[in-house]
Structure prediction request, 407 residues.
Amino acid sequence: MSQVTTFKIAITDDKIKRLKQKLSLTDFPDEVVDADESWSRGSPLAAVKRLALYWEKEFDWRKAEAVLNESPQYITKIEVEGFDTYDVHFVHQQSAITNAIPLLYVHGWPGSFIEVTKVLPHLVQGGKDFPAFHVVAPSLIDFGFSSASKKKSFNIDQHAEAYHKLMQALGYNEYVVQGGDLGYLVARFIALKYGSMHCKAYHINSAAPSAPTATSHPDIFAKANATPLSETEIAGLKRAELFSNEGNGYYREQATKPQTIGYSMTDSPVGLLAWIYEKLHDWSDNYPWSDDEILTWVSIYYFSRAGAAATCCVYYEMEHRQPAAFAAAQAYIDVPLGIARFSKDLVLLPKLWNHTMGPIIFESQYESGGHFAAWERPDAVVQDLRAMFKEGGGAYNCVTSRSGYND
Prediction:
């Protein structure tokens, strides 16, 4: 087993100084003003100028860094078959409850390991009235403070392998998973490759099931055709259509020409800010993002070990995989599944379609919350996991000798 060593984020003064210099030299574009829809063309000029100035003059990275370093972080080497050995950075906080359930939390884009920090202190609690968890939250390879993948065809399959091996290296032969966005795909591939021997159950948001057909899932198909869509489901389909038509350009660019957008993401801090800020605004449910929150999220990308552009690599590989990653993730996987739906998520398909994905043992529906579930609604994510794995819950005692409760 590779050595696990403690890790602290420590960006050099020279990198911070260079960031401020580049911010001071920014040339901003003009803007076509749309008073009615200020975000319709992307991140508004005035908002980006204000944030860029704050980033240059007032934002305190050292303060943000100290807060991030309050979470216990580590790094270890993980070998991915056919590729290389990678340094994987991760948060690992163990509960005081010996029988706590090992939980792998997998972040998405444009997030990072920071997403776990709001749920972390709550998930490790419990043992009496609700289950406790040992929480592991890696920086995906190509993200945060993990290595760059650098090789062609490093896909969701390899991400799944890396974090499964991380759990094994930490002594968690059996574990559960939570993920949304890219984390949804990684969770599905882990369940596909390592369930039910190792991945005993998983909880996802941002589910993307296939439509049932008379051939693929005749019972679900018949039930779906006989069941009128609810108002919530109709609204979800409209939101998904809007996202496909007006909000999916980033995906096509990152999935087809990642190198091209990579120059802006790497060389221009304001280009990176505008690229990510648009998503934080558009994909959340009126979440009151503070300037410090926005700039901490963006700074993790700017200061990342592999560089901000590396985070696009997985999109290209996902779409050039055969079958593509999202299509492969639509297979029926016989591992206990929990699903959360947040009303302002990006893709909300009819609920009955979810049953094409596997045996659903837990479902929740929230009227508020968007794409960044653990950040916008940490209470909901914690509530779901406790309900799913509690005594009497659908996944209770699914991990051998780790019920989440005191003896």
User: Anything to note?
Assistant: The beta strands are 5-7, 73-79, 85-93, 101-106, 133-138, 175-179, 199-205, 337-342, 360-366. The chain has a mean pLDDT of 97. The two ends are 30 Å apart (CA to CA). The chain has 16 helices and nine strands.
